[in-house]
Amino acid sequence: MAYEAAIETYSGKVEEVTIGKGEDSLRVGGETTLPFHFFEGRLPNPPKLALEVSHQRQLDRSEEAFKAEIISLQLLGTDAEGKDIEEIAAMTAEIVRSVGVPVIVYGTGEPERDRELLPKVAEACAGEGLLLGPVKKENYREIAAACLKYDHRLIAQTPLDVNATKQLNIMLTKEGISTDRIVIDPLSSALGYGMEYSYSAMERIKLAALAHNDKMLQMPIIANIGGECWKVKEAKEDDAQGVLWEGITALCFILAGANILILRSPHTYKLIQQILSKHLKNYDNREGY
Amino acid sequence: MILIGENINIMVKVISKALEERNPEPIQKLAIAQTEAGVDFLDLNLGPARKDGEAQMEWLVRTVQEASTLPLSLDTTNPVAMEAGLAICRDKALINSASGKQESIEKMLPLAQKYSAGVIISVLNDEGIPSDAAGRAESIMETISTANELGISNEDIWVDPILLPVSVDQQQVVEYMEFVKMLADLAPGVKSTVGLSNLSNGTPGELRGILNRTYMIMIGRCGQYSAIVDAFDKELISINKGEMTGITELVHKVMDGEDIDTASLSSKERDYVKTAAVIMGKVLYSHSWLELD
Amino acid sequence: MAVKGTDIKDKLPGTNCKECGMPTCFGFAMKLASGKAEPDNCPYLDPQVREELEDLLAPPMKLVTIGSGAQAVSIGEEEVMFRHEKTFFHAPGFALLISDNETEEEIAGKIKRIRELQFDRVGINLKADLLALHFTSGEVARYVALVKKVATEASDIGVVLISEDTEALLKALDAYGAEKKPLLYPVTADNIVKITEYIKEKPTPVGVKAGSVEEVAALTAKLRAAGIEEIVLDPDSKNLAEAVRDQTLIRRAALKKGFRPLGFPSITFPCFMTEEKQEEVLLAAGLIAKYAGIVVLSNMESHSIFPLLVERLNIYTDPRRPMTVEEKVYEINEPDKNAPVIVTTNFALTYFAVSSEMEISKVPSYLCIQDTEGLCVLAAWSTGKFTADTISSYIKRSGIADKISHRNLIIPGYVAQIKGELEEELPDWQIIVGAREATGIPAMLKLGVKY
Ligand code: SF4
Q1: Which of B5, B165, B245, C423 is deepest in the core (most CB within 10 A)?
Q2: How crowded is residue C448: how many other Cβ atoms within 10 Å of its Cβ?
């Protein structure tokens, strides 16, 4: 029996989503095959890395952070500082307008709170092409409306349930959000704390998008792992271990199909960047990273 | 397909209240209505029946038998209540249900032999619900052998392959069909049944019917013998009578992977086609599956 | 592409005579397919059919065992491309590379390290499995000495013998002993004849190396023709993208095409793909996820091997079964009689999240883990496994009451609604509704739960 490479091509294609504005914008997704599968399809955009900045830490971390290709602002905890919604929105806009790279804004995760907060942020950052979320089934209507009005992209979040992910995407498109303005967040758990669930959810979404050509799952995937990884004791008790904890989690999700990774440690950021630049060569002359 | 009406169920408030008050009227009304709807058996679901199960079952069987001539399927996990019911059933009754769990083998299966009743045996065993067709086959073969040894013939065994909701696990729904296809070869002569409405558990209420109906067509084609159903789903009864051959054929086409020109179809036909595609696992399930192209 | 009962039933006699112990031939076919019966159990098979069956029933990817005894590592016999399709079965072996050029102390240190680097997680012992002994000194005697040293001082740990010099490799095999099943590496186009001859006499697993998947397949075809079936594959991938390609193509060929020459597990060398330590760890991480059978690492430190071991555990966890932890009272931060008591379910992730937050809080406390068959709090509650009656009977049998002087029990915020019932069931106890999310636990414990 002669060897014949078992090449598989897929009928589906992941949407290409643009975040940020103008010259500073960048594109994610757009692939026609599984992660790293240059040998059988196109992967026009390598996975993008975002560095997480919280409002509290924004100042001291700003220098390193601003070298990142994307900044992710986490608004969680701003309430605890006693800031009101208008203040938070204004502060966010100030940062967004000063960084010169595309910005992801993650709200508090509390559906009720975000229902009020995120539309205000959307308004204050009008035209900046934010990637804004998390949008959940409880609050998608209000946030979707604001995103449409002020020209942002959405992060649709559903916890580890592919069917629910699809359903939320359908609801968002019914609100008038086009599929190239949605990014899927299937909830990412850290290594050792349920990573395998997120890993398999991402693989299932990617396969549905590519092999089954499921239009409602063809959005790029985001893995927001910085906070998850650095809250575990294995990371807290040992920095070097923490970097690998975050790095391994990140790489696993890249292999499972994540298109954007939100990291917390600049060291992890550089490490993953190095892996991507050294190991994702367009080695067989197909169109690729 | 032989249909078993599921509507007399303790989970329904009216029924539990009637049972508590020993008020025959609401129960007899339901029994009559289901009989008129055209089902072949009536399921009497008492649930776990922990307290007072024996007396409840006796009363329930008597009450229903006064109102309907249909044979009964007695549905409780309490073997004492089960026996109390079996003892007074007019016709050959159906035990709903036994399984491969040790406890069930010891307490339920002997009742089938003693009262020469039919018995629904599910593929559940002490290790849980098998995850694929092969696992189901393995589990059920063992339980069937045990049942045979107890003197229960294959003709009296109604295999329940256990149906999980399509919103939970589409693959399982497909595996179910694979299993039903092999059942006749595995254990010649056995019958099969299923709690059909399980398929649409977790699906928005107004959409449950079409899922159940489509699946009935599909498993019927795979050789399914009977199903426990909502007796008041008129369209379901009508499909089962063979009155909607157009729909039935369309669903068969989807099963065969034929290309269907949906443009020429009515919206109802399109819905059946979309539903069948979801059940076949060709499209990932979402609550809005009927709204997608 | 594991064979199905339906694929083989037509090969059986079809008389349903029951002599195999199954009620029907088809039943027997199902047993055969699941590996729970042998063709021999049916007395009516003609020899040719039996052979066909045996061929059909052979797993599409062979199981290969390296080392002998309790510490042996078995890899291969995988059935799927993606873990959600079923599960991954045989986790890759981690091998620590030792070069014969290293000093005595370095070598002793590495042997010591692979023994000592063991971790416990949910009652599972996590550790690296193998030593890879690399001939780099150019002095055969030196290499043989290393091999002998390992054979005596670490006789329980399986080894990979690595040498481009075939003479040295075979000498090492003799010194080590083929009966202990070391993995001989590499078999290449140049030495395949010689090695084949040699190991016909002294069977042991071999690692086949060539520049591409196709060339690897050509070599394994030769080995198989010579009756050698204990094989692992190395398509010599140079970077992660190549590795993903090669590993994917190998597995697809085996599982989806039933291509026997590639129906073997693989060996991978992140240690040779980069000089940088952290990068090497991440390459290993990628290879664990993408089908490696053996992962050879240049070094192992606690902070690098532990996350890889956890990753391996995660990726090879059976998704069909929820991970559970043992039902018992866990003591956190050395609690005393006054320590607060939290009860929750035995779903491993629930346990991890809760115990980790309790540790972070630094508050000495007890964590009572109740067996809910691996369901999380909400699922366990809704299926009746974590309700007032099951919790109360667990608390009574857990023995927690003897360890504390108070009677305050914290329940997860998600089951706040059972507080009343639970108080009825446990009249001596005061039930306190705790945080909904584990992240709320430190704050709750630090504030001092108000009894
Ligand atoms: S012994 Fe052979 S012929 Fe007889 S039932 Fe078993 S498989 Fe069929």
Answers
A1: B5
A2: 9
CATH of the domain at A118: 3.20.20.20
Residues across chain C? 451
ipTM of the complex: 0.94
C42 is in an annotated binding site: yes
C271 is in an annotated binding site: no
With contact defined as beta carbons under 8 Å apart, do B26 and B18 qualify? yes
Instruction: Compute CA distances C432 → B130, C304, C342, C385, whole Å.
Output: 39, 41, 9, 19
Q: Which residue of A has its CA nearest to C274?
A: A278
Helix (H) or strand (E) holding B90: none
| Contact between B8 and B35 (Cβ < 8 Å) | no
Helix B267-279 and helix B245-255, axial crossing angle in degrees, nearest 10: 40
In a domain, residue A284? The reply is no
How far apart (Å, rounded) are the C-alpha atoms in residues C112 and C85?
39
The number of C-alpha atoms within 13 Å of C132 and in the hemisphere containing its C-beta is 26
Q: Are B155 and B165 in contact (CB under 8 A)?
A: no
Residue whose token pair is 């990774």 = A261
- CB-based contact C4 B137, cutoff 8 Å: no
- Whole domain around residue A254: which residue ranges? 16-277
User: What are the extents of the domains in chain B?
Assistant: 2-233
Q: How many residues does chain B have?
A: 293
Please give, rounded to a whole number of angstroms, the shortest distance from the CA of C163 to a CA of chain A.
27
How is domain B2-233 classified at the architecture level of CATH? Alpha-Beta Barrel (3.20)
Total count of domains within chain A: 1
Residue pLDDT, tens place only, B191-240 = 999 999 999 988 999 999 999 999 999 999 999 999 999 999 999 999 99
Structural domains in chain C, sorted by start? 5-57 (1.10.15.40), 63-315 (3.20.20.20), 328-447 (3.40.50.11600)
Cβ under 8 Å to B: A residues 164-193: 164, 166-167, 170-171
- Type of residue at C79: E
Q: In angstroms, rounded to a whole number, what is the distance separating the alpha carbons of residues C138 and C126? A: 35
